[in-house]
Amino acid sequence: KTYRHYCQICHGKEGKGDGVNSGPLLETLKILPQDFTDLKFKKTKEDRLLDAVREGGLVNGKSVMMPAWGHTLNDRQIRDVIAFVRSLGGQPTASAAPSASPQAETP
Predict the structure, then answer these.
(1) pLDDT for 47-89, tens place per residue?
(2) 85: burial class by Cβ within 10 Å (0-12, 13-18, 19+)?
């Protein structure tokens, strides 16, 4: 619910950086919101994410368009949002695991 209310407008429903505000950001600033489904994003350290949400994107050398939510969201809400965005895409699932068929083992 917190993600939908505060983050989805830029980052999109599925966290791919394709929210309603992504078009104007790309057109005017040549930037896109973070794609949370990107595997590189999954490697971001927790403290960097906490800082980015609390203090805004600029604190991590990211976009000045990422607002600071530290005065709006409490610590629990921030951690819940981070847990949610980490759950979006980019995670291998049982259906995405390599199959044991000979075709999957071809070099």
Answers:
(1) 999 999 999 988 878 888 899 999 999 999 999 999 999 999 8
(2) buried
Report whether pLDDT(100) > 50. Answer: no
The b-or-e profile of 25-56 (16+ CB within 10 A means b, else e) is beeeeebbbbbbbbeebeebeeeebebbbbeb
Rounded to whole angstroms, the Cα distance separating 101 from 80 reads: 39
Alpha carbons 65 and 27: distance in angstroms, whole number: 13
User: pTM for the full model?
Assistant: 0.75
